[in-house]
Design a protein that fits this description.
Layout (H helix, E strand, L loop, with lengths): L3 E7 L3 E6 L5 E5 L2 E4 L5 E3 H9 L3 E4 L2 H6 L3 E4 L2 E4 H12 L1 H7 L4 E8 L4 H13 L7 E5 H10 L9 E8 L2 E11 L4 E9 L12 H19 L4 E7 L10 H7 L4 E4 L3 H13 L9 E3 L6 E9 L2 E8 L10 E7 L4 E8 L6 E6 L11 E11 L2 E10 L10 E7 L1
Parallel strand pairs: 1-9, 9-10, 11-14, 13-16, 14-15
Antiparallel strand pairs: 1-2, 2-3, 4-5, 4-6, 7-8, 11-12, 12-13, 17-18, 17-20, 19-22, 20-21, 22-23, 23-24
Helix pairs in contact: 3-5, 6-9, 7-8
Length: about 400
């Protein structure tokens, strides 16, 4: 038996876990508890039970704690948010490991409601703690998980627009996806919109609250689904675990389109992505345009063997967190490096010049530079350019230029 391919949907309320090609999935409350007398950690319902019995101290909102550099003092020991998140992920990954009798993880894809560099860095440190090689760990947005889930279904379900309503404890989010086939490239675009009409799910406990919730959803459905041709609408989130309260909305959603409820949509989408990493050729030959992916191409004009060429440093649809380039160039009498930024809208194409401030003047073609390029988010590129000199004749000066470039 090979290792596990795990999709993990992580937020401050719960974690959902799905494994590729396995039927069983898990929903675990995102809380961790340490027993008072000994350093034994419990998660989910076990954590709640121990706390109710007075045997442990519970901590929640782990992602928020990481983002705010927060800490929690338990039994006189101060734990950072990142330490607690590491312990939590380690414990919840024991569920599939025990169920399927293996401790090896071939791929772990974590999906988040929204992508943030600080949180992604923390998750990579978690991978180190779990001794999972970083190349096996990836972090993607809910929007990207949605794409992978949909494209893994029968083709007739996504020939036209695809909609998704996520109804969580205090969040109503609408996602929309469309596959576009072009002459040179096929593209899939998806976006998410948090709806202002979100409501607390506690209102579903009363008949009057249920009627109000159904009315709110009907209003959103009419606004979002009208005047567009949809193949399918998916429903996910705790609010859709039962649909008996949403008769009006279900009637609206099911009008001339297929509707499916999938509790584990995001974690399953992440698992499909994990499986795709293990294939020689991708099963998803599309440029993905969504949160977490670049929406512009970055290139340089270079001269190679006497011919002017365009060298692409980052492409449309690249995962910005994983997109990094390092290259060496010889500068031919230039005092700046010129980047070509080409967004999807060709009318917004632009040149961005980074001056080589502090670099020594030298004869043409005697300055070698090392350029490292990375991204802090999907719209911001960071470049670091170092003077490497040119052999013994022109030793490196130590000059460095760091610049942020908006795409």
């Amino acid at each position: 038996m090979g290792g596990l391919i795990i999709g993990l949907d992580l937020n401050d309320d719960y974690v959902q876990i799905s494994c590729y090609d396995k039927e069983k999935s898990w929903t675990i409350p995102a809380v961790i508890c340490r027993r008072k007398e000994e350093e034994i950690w419990l998660t989910g319902e076990e954590a709640y039970a121990a706390t109710l019995l007075g045997e442990g101290v519970i901590t929640d909102k782990l992602l928020k704690m990481v983002m705010k550099d927060g800490t929690s003092t338990i039994g006189g020991i101060c734990y950072s948010g990142s330490t607690l998140l590491k312990l939590f992920i380690k414990k919840v990954l024991d569920y599939p490991k025990k169920e399927f009798g293996t401790s090896e993880i071939e791929q772990l894809v974590v999906t988040l409601q929204s992508i943030d560099a600080k949180l992604m860095d923390c998750l990579m440190y978690c991978a180190d703690y779990l001794e999972i090689p970083r190349e096996r760990v990836h972090v993607i947005s809910h929007t990207e998980s949605f794409i992978y889930y949909v494209l893994s279904q029968k083709k007739e379900l996504w020939t036209n627009q695809v909609g998704l309503f996520e109804l969580a404890s205090d969040r109503l989010c609408y996602y929309e996806m469309k596959v576009q086939r072009g002459m040179r490239r096929n593209m899939v675009q998806a976006e998410a919109q948090n709806q202002e009409e979100a409501f607390n799910l506690d209102i579903l406990d009363s008949p009057s609250g249920s009627r109000l919730a159904d009315k709110i959803l009907c209003s959103c459905g009419e606004k979002l689904l009208s005047r567009k041709l949809f193949s399918t609408v998916f429903l996910t989130g705790k609010g859709f675990e039962r649909q008996d309260w949403a008769g009006g909305f279900m009637k609206l959603a099911c009008s001339r389109r297929k509707v499916f409820v999938e509790t584990y949509l995001f974690s399953k989408g992440a698992a499909f992505k994990g499986q795709d990493y293990l294939q020689e050729g991708t099963s998803y030959p599309y440029i993905f345009i969504c949160e977490g992916r670049l929406k512009a191409e970055v290139s340089l004009k270079i001269l190679r063997k006497g011919k002017e060429q365009q060298l692409v440093i980052a492409s449309y649809g690249d995962n910005w967190y994983e997109s990094r380039s390092s290259l060496e160039l010889i500068v031919d009498g230039q005092s700046e490096i010129e980047f070509i930024i080409s967004p999807l809208d060709s009318r917004k194409k632009k040149l961005v010049r980074v001056p080589l401030t502090g670099f020594p003047e030298r004869p043409p073609r005697t300055t070698r530079v090392e350029m490292n390029v990375g991204f802090t988010d999907e719209t911001t590129m960071m470049t670091v350019i170092r003077d490497k000199g040119f052999g013994e004749l022109f030793p490196a000066s130590g000059a460095v230029v760091r610049q942020e470039v908006k795409l």
